[in-house]
Amino acid sequence: MRLNQLFISLGLFLILFSCNEDESKIVVQSNAKEVTKFVVNGVQGTIDVNTNKISVSVTTTDVTNLVPTIEISDKATINPKSGVAQDFSNPVSYTVTAEDGSTKIYSVSVTGQSVSNAKEITKFVVDGVQGTVDRNANKVSVLVTVTDVTNLIPTIEVSDKATINPKSGIAQDFSNPVSYVVTAEDGSTKTFSVSVTIQANTNISSFTHNGKTYEIVQEAKSWKDAAAFAVTRGGFLAEINDQQEQDAIFQALNNANITPNNTVAPDGGGGSYVWLGGNDIGTGGNWVWNGNNQGTGTPFWSGATTGNVVNNSYVNWGRPTNGAPNPNGPFNEPDNFNGAQDALGLSLNGWPLGFAGQWNDVDETNRLFFVIELN
């Protein structure tokens, strides 16, 4: 009897064990069936999870053959498939099927936007000068006052959503016309020919001495502004090294029909002057030739009126007599009147402490004409 009971108990155990094992093998399938991402022509659409609608706005007018890239819930499938071209002239239905077989239908609408074909140069500026744009001939012309056009940086503006090549802000050699291609948003292009011409400046006259070219500029500027302008002309404020150069410059100034009242230094005895390249802006009393206002310059005088020549340099400071200068003086200049005279002016008509043609130290902020020595 007991043996029968044992066999019955063992049978019941095996039946229960078998049932539990079957139950443990049951797998719950996913019901996720969402479109998580829908991209057309690089534009990601907006997905409305409440209405099951997707909207995409693309920058093309032709929506009849667009290939979408679609991402969906894990373990789900979609029909039509991702990567299959569709005609989106009307909304297209996409069915997402979850792992458990349940489905969700999305309506996808793609709207085409008009693409701009504008491809104009609207503004072209070189060296602060705005050029003239001829949209009919596709030409741009610019008149500049610089003498070197081999390395100029233009600032360019083009139609909205258009691009240009070469780009704005890139230096170019304008010795010959340069072609610029403007590309519209729709990919169409227009080529402009840009010409930069050196404009004749009636305020500038030139002369030569000993194989070098000089320019007399009848535009009143401070010493630093004059030095900067000289650099744009390819030179520096003149640096006088001997009596012959001094005489040649002074003679050219006398022949330049300068109106003295237009280039006056009030602190220089009220006389008329032109800037040369000397200054002691860096260290008071240490006079250097530094006509481009760059670097440390070349010393030529140390001290004030009783100072000394440096490097056996030529000097022509204001003095009691009008004869040839004696490097040992006596000189009346430089005197640094009121402690604010740091730039070298050549006198055109004399002043109480010197004669026409001699040098005086005057305030660098005076606005005077100047002489450029070209490189």
How far apart are the termini? 129 Å
**Strand portion:** 35-45%
Q: Uncertain regions: pLDDT < 50 for 5+ in a row?
A: none
Overall shape: elongated
Question: What is the count of helical runs?
Answer: 3
Main sheet specs: 10 strands, mixed
Determine the CATH topology of the largest domain: Mannose-Binding Protein A, Chain A
Which CATH class of the largest domain is shown?
Alpha Beta
Overall CATH architecture of the largest domain: Roll
CATH superfamily of the largest domain: Mannose-Binding Protein A, subunit A
The beta-strand count equals 26
Oligomer: single chain
Judged by helices, strands and strand pairing, the structural class is mainly beta
- SSE run: HEEEEEEEEEEEEEEEEEEHEHEEEEEEE
Task: Describe the 3D structure.
There is one protein chain. The chain folds into three domains: 35-112, Sandwich (Immunoglobulin-like), CATH 2.60.40; 121-198, Sandwich (Immunoglobulin-like), CATH 2.60.40.2340; 204-374, Roll (Mannose-Binding Protein A, Chain A), CATH 3.10.100. It contains three helices and 26 strands. The protein has 375 residues and is mainly β. The strands form five sheets. Strands 17, 18, 19, 20, 21, 22, 23, 24, 25 and 26 form a ten-stranded mixed beta sheet that branches. A five-stranded mixed beta sheet has the order 3-4-8-7-6, with no helix packed on it. A five-stranded mixed beta sheet has the order 11-12-16-15-14, with no helix packed on it. Strand 21 (286-289) and strand 22 (298-302) form a beta hairpin. It has helices spanning 2-24, 223-232, 243-254; strands at 35-40, 43-44, 46-48, 53-58, 68-72, 77-79, 92-97, 103-112, 121-126, 129-130, 132-134, 139-144, 154-158, 163-165, 178-183, 189-198, 204-209, 212-221, 235-237, 273-279, 286-289, 298-302, 308-309, 343-347, 359-362, 368-374.
